[in-house]
Amino acid sequence: MSAPALNATMPARLSYPRDRPSAFARLTQNRMASFGLLLLSLIVVVVVAAPILPLAPPHVANVAQRLRPPLTPGHFLGTDQVGRDILSRLIWGTRLSLAVGVFAALIASLIGSAIGLLAAFRGGWIDTLLMRGIDMLMAFPYLLLALAIVAALGPGLVNAMIAITIVNVPFFARGVRGAALSIVRTDFMAAARLSGLSDARIVFWELLPNVMPGIVIGLSTTIGWMILETAGLSFLGLGAQPPQADLGGMLGEGRNLLQVAPHVATIPGLVILLLAIGINLIGDGLRDVLDPKLKSGGLARTHARTDAVSLEERSKGLPLPGAAARLPLAIRGLRTHFRIGRAIYAAVDGVDMAIAPGESVGIVGESGSGKTVTALSILGLVATPPGRIVGGEILHYGEELASATLSRLQEIRGRRIAYVFQDPQSTLNPLIRIGEQIAESIRRHQGKSAAEAMRLAVALLESVHIPDPEHKANAYPHELSGGQRQRVGIAIALANDPELIIADEPTTALDVTTQAQVLKLLNELRRERGAALLFISHDFGVIAAVCDRVHVMYGGRVVESGPVAEVLERPRHPYTQRLLACVPELGRRGRQVTPIPGLPPSTDALPPGCAFAPRCHRAAPRCSIGEITLDAVESDHYARCIRVNDA
Amino acid sequence: MTDIILRADAVVREFPRGRRLFGPRSPALRAVDGVSLAINRGQTIGIVGESGCGKSTLARMMVGLLEPSAGRLEIDGQSIPALARHDRRSLHRRVQMVFQDPLGSLNPRKTVREILAAPLRALHGMDRTACNKRVAELMDLVSLRADFADRYPHEFSGGQSQRIGIARALAAQAEVIVLDEPVSALDVSVQAQVLILLAELQTRLGLTYIFISHDLAVVETIAHEVAVMNHGQIVEQAPAERIFADPQHEYTRLLLASALRAAPRSSG
Question: What is the pTM of this model?
Answer without folding.
Answer: 0.83
